[in-house]
Amino acid sequence: MTTTTVARTETSWETVIGLEVHTQLRTASKMFCRCPADYAAAAPNTYVCPLCLGMPGTLPVINRTAVEWTIRTALALNMRIPELSKFDRKNYPYPDLMKGYQISQYDMPLSEGGWMDVEIDDLGRQRIGITRVHLEEDTARLLHRENEAGERFSLVDVNRSGVPLMEIVSEPDMRSPQQARQYLVQLRQILRYLGVSTADMEKGSFRCDANISLRRPGDEALGAKVEIKNMNSFRSVQRALEFEQLRQAAALEAGETIAQETRGWDEEAQVTVSQRSKEAAHDYRYFPEPDLPPLQTAAETVEAIRAALPELPAARRARFEADYGLQPFEAGLLTEEPAPAAWFERAVASLGDDVPAGLPRGIATWFVGELTRLMHDAKPPDTLETIVVQPAQLAGLVQLIDAGTISNTQAKDVFAEMYASGEDAEAVVERLGVSQISGEDALAPIIRQVLEEHAQAAEDYRGGKAEALKFLVGQTMRLSRGQANPAQASELLRAALDDTAE
What we know:
Number of domains: 3
Strand content: 15-25%
Radius of gyration: 31 Å
Largest sheet: 8 strands, mixed
Strand order of the largest sheet: 5-6-9-1-10-11-12-13
Number of helices: 15
Number of strands: 15
Order of helices and strands: EHEEEEEEEEHEEHEEEEHHHHHHHHHHHH
């Protein structure tokens, strides 16, 4: 295969990007039959029936849950839900489509006209229009193999055929690959919060086709559109768009014409490669699906689904910052997925109604720091579902730190024991015999001994050498075996030295 090298130079072209996202719904059964939809671990061609196989004479039956979940997603994306929608036949010949057509939606989808705000670090919040969210069935899949003679061949696995597939089509409102990537990240977050899909790109339950064209700044007309396929990660999407952006710019600068085509992303070569000319809608010969009735969605149904929507990621981030005093970085990490956010809130709730200011922030710090580190260091890595330490126990540890019972250094050792055993913080502190020595009465004898043993350092401090105080604090920590409260020790040492200086 011949690869193409594109020079990375700045251009005077404006990039226009629109994304088509296909996400599998995690329903129990397929879109139009009773076959299980969770086919990932199944042997090829075991979750199939005559309807999945496209046998003549079979009749589809609409999966009600899939329809409700599509409406649920559409409402989360600020879409309008028409009262009437219908399914259509999308006709095209391909090896993974045995019956020669796909049941999809064309001119009367389940939703239309929405938007999503995308947060970009350098550019702030930008609104991306969403054209439609509609429902269709997934196709079978081709498994490419090679025999001992080196001959390549393909096999068809029908397990995926008929799995409910939701398509989310954006407006061409994105202007950079980075923005496109962030749109996908936030869209996947929303889908996971809604619970409608695993949205796992590596397993094919969240797939993206990217449309990209270039035009001169200020032009209203769009350039020739190129569609990019075969991207299985956010990184791949961004890199494919970056490559295509530069390829098209170089071609236009050379006076060439951009062909409207479908290109694939070659992950190994890091280039896009031409696959076929891009189809237009009329090429699919859409017509209403004769075996399915139109869908009528009552306003009461829509409002009931809207009322059941969960708190979405953006709203949860804002609340965490406002209610718990978290920094945007901490709130962002905690709300990336529903599970960490819920775990954190259970920890805060365990503190009771009158939560001292600062404790939620302390819990967040320990969650994104030590807890996450210990989970990642485990072999294999732990999850919030597998760890033995509970939210209330982490909250208890933070309370001990806040009360001055243990220092942050001691707390790390205590938490490592808690993580391994599932014990409460108080029990581990008692078992290890670690607690922080605080208060003037407890620290005064240690301070006196340090000043007696290190008289020269005391004289150096009185002589204006501020660094000597740090040395004396260190000696206090050593003598107390790390249990002295360092802030109080520093304050008492300074007071004792200042008194003797007078």
